[in-house]
Amino acid sequence: MRIAYITETFPPEINGVSLTTARAVHHLRRQGHAVQVIRPRQAHEATGSLEDTGEFGHTVDPLEWRTAGAPIPMYPGLRFGWATSGGLRRLWRRHGVPQLVHVATPGPLSWAALRAARAQGLPATADFRTNFHAYSQHYGLGWLQPAVLAYLRGLHNMAHLTFVPTLSLATELAHRGFARLSVIGRGVDASVFSPAERDEGLRRAWGVGPDDRVLLYVGRLAAEKNVSLALDTFEYLRRRQPGLRMVVAGEGPWRARLAAAYPEVRFVGVQRASALARCYASADVFLFPSLTDTFGNVVLEALSSGLSVVAFDSAGASTLIESGYNGWLATPEDRAGFFRAAELALDESAPHGALRQRARTLALRSDWETALQGFEQQLQSVVEQVMSPRREHHAALA
Questions:
Q1: Per-residue pLDDT at 137
Q2: In the record, which residues are listed under signal peptide (predicted)?
Q3: In 139-244, which ranges are E strands?
Q4: C-beta pairs of 33-36 under 8 Å, 24+ apart in sequence
């Protein structure tokens, strides 16, 4: 298939959506599909050669096109893209009309792409990856939540199918008026994220003694991630266990204020590939305090690394973790309950303990190849469902 894949975040940006999108694009290309990535230029990138549409600059990769972009308000590390539906149609006419349009993010670039697809009668699919309507309350804009939700519903209902990561999210969105939803799970590379990556030298660099325990948070340092709850959990637990340490891997607009407020926490910045795998495996308990994530790929990475995981009973964690068996769950919004769950996780955090082994076993059943094959099959099915009646109609007229 020829696929136009629209995303407003892509490597080298580091976040769950960009990395998952890049993995999906790589899989589809490996399977022989011609995937045209359309994304905004990132801050460090030159404009490049402009097409006669005036809207798109190409890269050295003929299957990657860049649009104008600007920083997201209150989130300057990420950008949104800008194009018109007419500009996209002209681009496709010149370089090949896609057989499918897929949008991975819900910004204005994706809105233009779905409008262009509808205008040309093209099959279109979308990912629901981020609860943007829930973000507004973390930035003093809670009054905007109904408007943001209405925008998201309008965007996704232009698609012939929207992919969601869990059945619970599909049920919630259906109740809110989202149509044509399909559940596609996530995966993890268990050969990369493995207990075998535990590094005693790294633990010593963190100031950890042989019998001490390490709490870990991995992710963006931003208001909607509820990071301060993880750090408050550390403060609560270290009064009971003086040798306890806390490591935070990630960047974001809240790093400076968190580092100032929690001087005993070690902030190690963004970690990639093998360095990130060593961080996971060298810790003992993983804290995931978010209530806005739709899934949380980091939960699977931590489980695959054999960590005792603490999370709220929501989103992806609720489908992956059985409390007391392979991790610990707290009731959403229950701060004291999260503290108690972390205390129980710490009790079960011996490196070769049964709970941590069961965490690893669960992750081994969640491989990326299976998830991406299912995604690819669904894309092909949408194209067939949309185009087959048209082919039959044209055949009848012939």
A1: 59
A2: none
A3: 161-164, 181-183, 214-218
A4: 33/1, 33/2, 33/3, 33/376, 34/1, 34/2, 34/3, 34/63, 34/96, 35/3, 35/5, 35/63, 36/2, 36/3, 36/4, 36/5, 36/63, 36/64, 36/65, 36/95, 36/96, 36/98
From residue 97, give the alpha-carbon distance in Å to each of 55, 62, 119, 294.
17, 14, 12, 32
Q: What is the DSSP letter of 295?
A: S
Token couple for 379: 């894309």
- For residue 229, the domain's CATH number is 3.40.50.2000
The answer to whether residues 200 and 179 belong to one domain is no
Before 62, cis peptide (omega within 30)?
A: no
State both tokens at 171.
């049920």
Residues 210 and 163 in one domain: no
- Report mean pLDDT in 10-residue bins for the chain, 398 residues: 94 84 96 94 59 51 79 66 90 92 94 96 93 55 76 96 94 96 94 96 94 95 93 96 94 94 97 96 97 90 96 92 96 96 95 94 92 96 86 50
Distances (CA, A) of 310 to 30, 105, 195, 255: 36, 28, 18, 22
DSSP 308: E
Q: What is the pTM of this model?
A: 0.87
With the CA atoms of 110, 116, 121 and 122 taken in that order, what torsion angle do they form, in degrees rounded to the nearest 10? -40
Q: How far is CA 228 from the centre of its chain?
A: 20
Predicted pLDDT at 51 = 42
- Cα dist from 213 to 202, 286, 341, 351, whole Å: 13, 11, 16, 10
Looking at the fold, whether 39 and 104 belong to one and the same domain comes out as: yes
| CB-based contact 125:26 (threshold 8 Å) | no
User: CB of 218 within 8 A of CB of 250?
Assistant: yes
Q: Rounded to whole angstroms, how far apart are CA atoms 5 and 23?
A: 12
Task: Write phi, then psi, for 158 (nearest 5 degrees).
Answer: -75, -20
Q: What domain range is 274 assigned to?
A: 195-364
